[in-house]
Amino acid sequence: MKESIMKHKKPIIIGTAVLAVLVAWATLSVPKTANADEAKAAPPAESPPTDDPKATDKADKPAEAKAGEAAPKPEEEKAPEEPPAAPDPVKLLVDMVDEPAGKVRVLGSLAVANLQAEKPAEAKPLLTAAMAQIEALEAGDEKLAVVSQLATVLADFAGNADVDAVTTQLAEMEKALNPAAHAAKGLVASLSTPELQVRVLSQIAAVLSQAGDTKLAAAVLKQAQANAGAMDAGTAQMAAQTHVAVALLAMGQEKPALAMLGKLQTDMDALEASEDRLAAFGNMAAALAGMADHEAVEPYLAHAKAKLRQLRYLADPILRLVGGIDEADGRVRVLCNLAANLSKNGDTEQSAAMLAKAQELIGDLSKPADLAPALTHLAHAQAAMGQVDASKATLAKAMAQVDEIDSIEDQTTALGKLVATVDSLNDTKHLQAILAQSLKTSNLIQKRAQAVMQQSLRLINQLPAGEEKVAALQQIVTSIETTNPTGFYTDLQFELGRLHQEGANLPRNPTAAAACFLKAADLGHAGAQVLLGQMHLQGELKPADLNEAFKWLSAAARTGHAEGQVMLGMMYALGKGVKADLIRANQWVSLAADQGHPQAIQAKEQLATKLTAVEQAESEKLIKEWRDQQSEPVPPVQKPAPKPAEPEKTAEK
């Protein structure tokens, strides 16, 4: 910063020195006026006294010329000597500067000073000398920077013929030195401020780099850097340099970009006026917002935002109230609550001010996870203040943000706040909208949970059957048993039951298997219902319970499970646990056979030889009725009744 300030103070210091030299030169160059007494002829010197009268006569009479001798000519008066010429102070001052670029800056500053003093005639030779110095520079970055800087300082004096001639020459030089950047500069020449010009040039450079034209991108960025360097020191220049740093990041030049950002933040912290610091950090935060996902940029963006918030809150008595709250959601919530309370107490002016500040803070938020709850707080305050229509509109925006939240946990939290706000509005339309969103989130949670569990199960299935596999499955089951005992939970219980039933690489345990099957069967898992019924039917559980077998096989058959249907049909055919009924046996066996079950197909063929035409017709009627019932949407079986419709039982058990 000090270097930058000195760079711009140097022309002033040099100008002051020039003025002093000019004054001294003027004083020395004025000729002295002859004194009136000195202008009179001095009286002749008196002759010394003598006794010789002849000598006295000779002295009293003019000497007579000797015969033949020419009369002596009077001596010619000598012309007064010219005082030595005073040295040119401008030349002296320029010669004090070693590098040509510095000479150009000095000459340019002197020319500008004369132009500002409306002395264009005195500015012209200075500009001519400056152009001569530029011509002496070798082509390169330094010459380009000097040309650009002089063109910038002369821009305010467009319309002066001499200045216009010089700026035309400078434009031609710039075009020759950097043709691509010159074209880009032409594109932004009409933009209102130098900072805006630098921003647009930086954006063009970034786009060109991403398009693969790195050479042209570098040329355009160099022009942006030159324009930024020619700007007066201050917040506008800092904003311009921030745009250059962002372009460097976009072009993959991370190291110089971060160094530039670090120096800028140091310079911003050193600004004396809090208003300037506020503007500087605000510009930086806005410029870096688009790079928020860049890991290396995050600390600089966070620092800029923190400084911006601190300065804003110090400058604003309302924001100072929430300056100590870290979370954006919390700051908005406090302001909204204050606004609602003030409104209830009749202080509408302060209430409106609080609400306006809350809306201002919301405007700074960009992440859906922050916006959704903040908008909800705003909607709640608007409702409490009687702004019902505004509250509903804000609530709709909040619901839209919930969809954009990635985290399920954040979605759930946001929905909870939305529900509380809707309760206060007593609006059916919004209640329905929140309910729909809540169900959508709930389904999403379940799907994601199931996806994770499926991945876990795939990993578990790679384990060899045995106690370790059972333990892993049991761990998953336990983790979801109390929170989501449906869907995937039933599949896990079924899998655990099979491992215990088969006893692969672990002791066979029918009791443990039945316990797992029962948990899944109670929740409508048809496979578990079949295996549980089969265990009761075949006496794997002591004592055998044909009633339980009949109950669970009937439940599985009603869901359309082919294995359950064929087993229930055989119970009716054999009169096992139920009175023999060939009509119902044929019904269930036929339904299973229609699904391609091989045992059911054989059983159907055998039953066909034993049924009369009337019995066959009655069985077909039952089949049609069952199919008609299945076509109607019915809720899934959650838990079978303790006992199915009581058939006529036999004594066998």
Give a description of the structure:
The protein has 653 residues and is mainly alpha-helical. Among the domains are: 1-26 and 86-177; 322-445, Alpha Horseshoe (Serine Threonine Protein Phosphatase 5, Tetratricopeptide repeat), CATH 1.25.40; 446-631, Serine Threonine Protein Phosphatase 5, Tetratricopeptide repeat (Alpha Horseshoe). It has 30 helices and no strands. The chain has helices at residues 2-29, 36-39, 53-60, 89-95, 100-116, 120-136, 141-154, 161-177, 179-188, 194-210, 214-230, 235-250, 254-269, 274-288, 298-315, 328-344, 348-363, 368-384, 388-404, 408-425, 428-461, 467-481, 488-502, 510-522, 526-537, 546-558, 562-574, 582-593, 598-608, 613-631. The longest helix is centred in the last third of the chain and has 34 residues, at 428-461. The chain starts with a helix and ends in a 22-residue tail after the last helix.
Q: Which range best describes the helical content: under 10%, 10-25%, 25-40%, 40-55%, 55-70% or over 70%?
A: over 70%
Structural class: mainly alpha
CATH class of the domain at 446-631: Mainly Alpha
Distance between the termini: 99 Å
Strand content: under 5%
How many individual β-strands?
Answer: 0
CATH architecture of the domain at 446-631, by name, is: Alpha Horseshoe
> Helix and strand string, N-terminal first?
HHHHHHHHHHHHHHHHHHHHHHHHHHHHHH
